[in-house]
Amino acid sequence: MKLTCTKTGTYRAITHVTRYQAGLVCLAMEFVAPGNYIELIGHEFEHALEQAEGIDITAIAASKCKTAYMTAGGAFETARAISAGRTVAREFHEHR
Ligand SMILES: [Zn+2]
């Protein structure tokens, strides 16, 4: 994980995915400070699970089924990650 102290990005957090021919998948999570880290960490880890499960987010976004889409900045977003982040944040605040 990398904490970035800039507000120039069009995102609050992002996961960069690099796939290698041997099957290795590397994920680099970047969080822009300051922010709601609880929701963002849950959100970005859901993206990590999507990658581990081999979900083709690019194909889903292209199908226009509304569970995944490309953002104005060219990144992909999923309803699943948005929901997971909100769930993690809600559970965190309910159990503090
Ligand atoms: Zn996302």
| Helix content estimate | 25-40%
Number of helices: 3
Rg over CA atoms, rounded to whole Å, is 14 Å
The tally of strands reads 5
Structural account:
This protein has 96 residues and is of the alpha+beta class. The protein has one domain. It has helices at residues 37-52, 57-62, 79-94, and strands at 2-4, 13-19, 25-32, 68-70, 76-78. The chain has a three-stranded mixed β-sheet, with helices on one face. A hairpin with a 5-residue loop joins strand 4 (68-70) and strand 5. Helix 1 crosses helix 3. The chain is globular, with a radius of gyration of 14 Å. The two termini are 24 Å apart. The mean pLDDT is 88.
Task: Give a short synopsis of this structure.
With about 100 residues, the chain is α+β, with helices and mostly antiparallel strands. About 40% of the residues lie in helices and about 25% in strands.
Keywords:
alpha+beta; single chain; globular; 96 residues; binds zinc ion; two-stranded antiparallel ribbon; 3 helices; three-stranded mixed beta sheet
Mind sketching the topology for me?
Elements: E1 2-4, E2 13-19, E3 25-32, H1 37-52, H2 57-62, E4 68-70, E5 76-78, H3 79-94
Parallel strand pairs: 1-3
Antiparallel strand pairs: 2-3, 4-5
The structure holds zinc ion.
Zinc ion (ZN) is lined by residues 43, 47, 77, 81.
